[in-house]
Amino acid sequence: MDKLCKQVESSSKYYEFQYNTRIVKPSILHFQLRNLLWATSKHDVYFMSNSTVGHWSSLSHKMTDVLDFSGHVAPAKKHPGCALEGFTGVQVSTLAVNEGLLVAGGFQGELVCKSLGERDVKFCTRTTLSDNAITNAMDIHRSTSGSLRITVSNNDSGVREFDMERFQLLNHFRFNWPVNHTSVSPDKKLLAVVGDDRDALLVDSRNGKVTSTLV
């Protein structure tokens, strides 16, 4: 290991303590579902605190509420497949913030989308009506054409891809076990799918066919 690792001076400084705050208090509802903290820059952090998505700036040392789930949330505009009635009392199980978009997933399969620069919720839908509907993870990414997409992993053994320009479901792939996380490859051609199984799958992002198994 000494040959592989770069030799460094043990007395050198690599990080200096900068600032600490106790105002920011992230919370976790489920001990396994911890994907609830996102840093979108060197200075911006988004997190769940009880029933509210908050934003913390390390520059201004200020915290602001971004989206409150304690009451009723509903979209401001109508889109095909959108739940216009919205949701009440969503328990957030996972969070993703990227490309100026905030997406929250719920324990009952809820999906709530909001642009960071806008006040209103853009899109709400229930991804599944299954009894085992927990939204485990979401990946915000760009397609090869540059359009904004999100890939959603659920406990109902499904992976769904949504177009966030038109707010439409593009793909729904089914597997033999609950899916805990899905990542999109840099070239957008493959999905890495992991879940309640010892093996991981590499899947064709166009049709959901398994191309390889990682044992």
Automatic annotation (TrEMBL):
Supply the InterPro entries for this chain. WD40/YVTN_repeat-like_dom_sf (IPR015943), WD40_repeat_dom_sf (IPR036322)
Cited PANTHER family:
GAMYB-BINDING PROTEIN, WD REPEAT PROTEIN (AFU_ORTHOLOGUE AFUA_8G05640)-RELATED
Output this protein's name.
Anaphase-promoting complex subunit 4 WD40 domain-containing protein
